[in-house]
Write a structure and sequence with these properties.
With 519 residues, this protein is α+β, with helices and mostly antiparallel strands. It has helices spanning 6-13, 40-53, 73-104, 123-129, 133-136, 156-162, 212-300, 306-315, 317-349, 361-371, 373-376, 401-419, 453-456, 476-487; strands at residues 108-113, 118-121, 146-148, 172-179, 187-198, 201-210, 357-359, 386-390, 397-399, 427-434, 439-446, 491-496, 502-509. The protein has 14 helices and 13 strands. Strands 2-1-6-5-4-3 form a six-stranded antiparallel β-sheet. A five-stranded mixed β-sheet has the order 8-10-11-13-12. A two-stranded antiparallel sheet has the order 7-9. It starts with 5 loop residues before the first helix and ends in a 10-residue tail after the last strand.
């Protein structure tokens, strides 16, 4: 690391002993022979030798007078020279080990002064920054060569403000930075900063490790996981939609089969009913003629034979004459009732209106009530349910009549279910009105127990039901929502408070304004 001129030591040995107290000024300054970038332990060794050489020659290393030493001045200086040579060899060996460790370290090592300027860079740093160490020396390290990717304890401003402040504790900060590389794509490194000293001044030792590939792998893994999560969510959504569609198709098929059956029964009943109602008028006329003829016989032949008198008393001709017209009237009323039921069944099924057509909403509601009449009427053990209708003046609404009747059936059936366990009075209110010139509103309310708030946001979810197992599928309101919102572009909502009943609000446009398809 440095070379001592031995002739100078020999010249100094001839100096008058009385002048040796000041002879130390002629000893060569060993600090000028040591590179500034030498390791701290090298400087400490040199300081030891320097202090040793500066001691007065009047005493030896143990502070004893030279007169007490057996060696003469020349021998003492020669021995001191040998000690210096040994120290020089130790320094060279220490520096070699230091250089070997630093040079062969796979991590880039950079020493930066308190102003953030590079003072040292090992070969790995040259490779990482794609330039020579001489090109790195003196460059602004923080902000120009490395840019922090995220906030950390030490940033560029903090480093610049440290200056020569006395170090209390060694701090180690680890963060990730972007490396500004020479003529190459920037890379990502993990940087570890340690506060240290360099040439007696505050400095920072930064070790950097290229983690670009690792970050790319992590990013690829994150993207893969994100895609996997997205695909999983999409699959779950698709599966849910498939299950919902399957259930709706099954329910729609059931309703379609029910509609076909109802239409078939209505058609089969309608033929004999038409036959009966068509002949009741003639029967009534014939009975009236026969009774008139009988009265004429009684008028002109007041004294019939005994057999006719006996028969007349047996059939009670007077009662028969009065009751037979009433009987014909009752038969006619019954036939008309059957005809109305048949018409209601046909209106409910609406097989002849598979496409959107203008229909009378009130007819659909009445037809649904007719089918549900057996659940509404009172019995010996049940007081029944009163239906209050407040129908407004509505134009014909362009809709899928059969599907809309299915919605009325679901809403009214749910209202009846809610009232069956309620004490009297039990009432269902149905009102219709125009909300504007373009939409109509149908409101179906009951005075039942109401719907809990925790259930109201799930009412229209597929398979959600509060009914006992086997009593409900959880599809009625879901299908109703799809019919009103998706098929007719309308609104279906529920307004309910506990113990204050529930009201379902249906709003649909008078004219179709959305492209729709039948279920």
């Amino acid at each position: 690391m440095f070379i001592t001129d031995s002739s100078q030591f020999r010249a100094d040995s001839a100096v008058n002993p009385n002048q040796r107290q000041g002879a130390t000024e002629k000893i060569p300054d060993l600090h000028h022979t040591i590179p500034k970038d030498a390791a701290p332990e090298i400087h400490e060794a040199i300081n030891y030798v320097w202090n040793l050489l500066k001691q007065p020659f009047a005493t030896n290393q143990l502070g004893q007078p030279l007169s007490a030493c057996k060696l003469g001045p020349c021998e003492e200086q020669q021995e001191l020279h040998v000690e210096v040579e040994q120290l020089k060899q130790q320094i060279r060996a220490s520096e070699a080990r230091f250089r070997n460790i630093i040079d062969k370290n796979a991590d880039a090592i950079v020493i930066v002064n308190a102003d953030g300027l590079v003072h040292f860079a090992n070969p790995s740093a040259e490779s990482l920054f794609n330039c020579t160490a001489s090109q790195l020396l003196g460059q602004d390290f923080f902000g120009k060569l490395v840019v922090e990717r995220q906030a950390c304890e030490i940033d560029t401003g903090t480093i610049r403000r440290i200056g020569t402040t006395a170090k209390k504790d060694t701090r180690v900060v680890q963060t990730q930075v972007d490396l500004i590389r020479n003529d190459r794509e920037n890379t990502i490194a993990e940087m570890r900063i340690v506060e240290t000293e360099w040439e007696g001044q505050r400095a920072f030792l930064a070790s950097l490790r290229d983690i670009t590939e690792r970050k790319r792998a992590e990013e690829a893994l994150r993207q893969s996981e994100a895609r996997l999560r997205e695909q999983t969510q999409q699959l779950e959504k698709t599966l849910s939609e498939l299950k919902q569609t399957q259930a709706q198709l099954v329910q729609s098929e059931k309703m379609s089969s029910l509609g076909q059956m109802v239409a078939g029964v209505a058609h089969e009943i309608n033929n004999p009913v038409n036959f009966i109602t068509g002949n009741l008028g003639h029967a009534k006329h014939y009975a009236s003629d026969l009774l008139s003829l009988l009265h004429l016989y009684e008028k002109h032949y007041p004294n019939p034979v005994r057999e006719i008198v006996a028969k007349r008393e047996a059939v009670d001709i007077d009662f028969l004459s009065q009751d037979f017209p009433k009987l014909m009237y009752s038969m006619n009323v019954g036939a008309e009732r059957i005809r109305e039921i048949v018409i209601s069944l046909r209106n409910f099924s609406r097989l002849d209106q598979a496409e959107m057509k203008p229909v009378n909403i009130h007819e659909g509601i009445d037809s649904t009530l007719m089918i549900l009449q057996n659940r509404l009427k009172s019995t010996a053990s049940y007081s029944g349910i009163s239906v209050i209708k407040e129908f407004g003046e509505l134009p014909k609404v362009e809709c899928y009549a059969g599907q809309l009747n299915q919605v009325f059936m679901n809403l009214l059936s749910n209202a009846i279910d809610a009232l069956e366990q309620q004490p009297s009075p039990r009432t269902i209110s149905i009102s219709t009105s125009l909300s504007s010139k373009s939409t109509v509103i149908i409101r179906i309310a009951d005075n039942g127990p109401g719907i809990p708030l925790s259930h109201q946001n799930k009412l229209f979810d597929p398979f959600f039901t509060t009914k006992p197992v086997g009593a409900g599928t959880g599809l009625g309101l879901s299908i109703s929502y799809q019919i009103i919102v998706e098929k007719h572009g309308g609104i279906l909502k529920c307004v309910s408070k506990p113990n204050q009943g529930a009201e379902f609000w249906v709003e649909i446009p008078i004219r179709a304004n959305v492209p729709v398809e039948t279920l």
